[in-house]
Design brief:
Elements (H helix, E strand, L loop, with lengths): L1 E2 L5 E4 L5 E4 L4 E6 L5 E6 L4 E8 L2 E9 L30 E6 L5 E6 L4 E8 L2 E10 L14
Antiparallel strand pairs: 1-2, 2-3, 4-5, 5-6, 6-7, 8-9, 9-10, 10-11
Length: 150
Amino acid sequence: MHAGSRGGNIVASGNDDRTVEAGAGPSGVSINRAGNLVLVANRNAATVSVFRFANGSLTPLSTVTIGNATSSPVHVQFTPDGPLREVARAPVGDWAQGIAFSRDGKTVVAQNMADRNLAVFRFDNGRLRDTGQRIAVNGGPAAIRTADRQ
């Protein structure tokens, strides 16, 4: 899967590449656990494109407006039970590029590219609280994921 071409396209890679139209400035992609739904954050359009993935093909389902001209999505992620919804908002650093949740869903880390750090939040009872903790990194973080421990 590739996102980020100038034309606002997503390319489903495999034996037979196909291009489908997403919104302007596709920058984040998430695939649900079942592998049949794909979300694309369109940072220049303030939208999220929703696609169905079946039989090697992406089919557009809908487009959801999230944000505005000064605050657009750059990252999307499925919740464990699958629905697309906004659960909380909090100010983050300069040019926030993505988030990752801990396995228990109680810690949220936001990456701030221009500030060159990771901001740590706690998510409890539907509220997002800034812990004030910042983890400095050498470069501007642009992609973040969590890994399960074995």
